[in-house]
Write a structure and sequence with these properties.
Blueprint lengths: L2 H9 L7 E6 L4 E4 L7 H10 L3 H7 L1 E3 L2 E8 L3 E6 L2 E7 L3 E7 L5 H17 L3
């Protein structure tokens, strides 16, 4: 399956995720939903946030020009909030899944979708 198919089918296709991207930990966007453009600086900051979760917690995360308040951050998952909307970032062995959801979707509906895809990708070596 192509990386774009993971974004289109496994994330956006669920109806719970509004925007998504898969970033390579070594750099670059592997796939993204239409119109979801992360700057080079944002991509680097997202990857770096997993090695410095305290900084992500203190400063928030920026995705496609939108700043999210960081609810929690560790070396696997970062959860952000902006008003009624939210962001879920999950690191795999080689990639970072970046997903946003918009109200009325809530974190308990969106988070398992992203976390389960990350578990699958880790299981197959990515």
């Amino acid at each position: 399956m192509s990386w774009q198919a993971y974004v289109d089918n496994n994330l956006i296709g669920t109806g719970k995720i509004s925007k998504a991207a898969i970033l390579g930990q070594a750099g670059g966007v592997w796939a993204a939903s239409p119109g979801f453009t992360l700057s080079t600086e944002e991509q680097a900051a997202v990857v770096r946030a997993f090695s410095k979760p305290d900084e992500a917690q203190a400063n928030g995360i920026r995705l496609a020009g939108q700043k999210f308040f960081t609810l929690s951050a560790n070396d696997r998952s970062i959860y952000g909030k902006k008003g009624g909307d939210g962001a879920i970032l999950v690191k795999t062995k080689q990639a970072v899944l970046v997903a946003e959801y918009t109200a009325p979707v809530q974190a308990p509906e969106a988070t398992p979708i992203v976390e389960n895809l990350a578990d699958y990708l880790i299981g197959v070596g990515y």
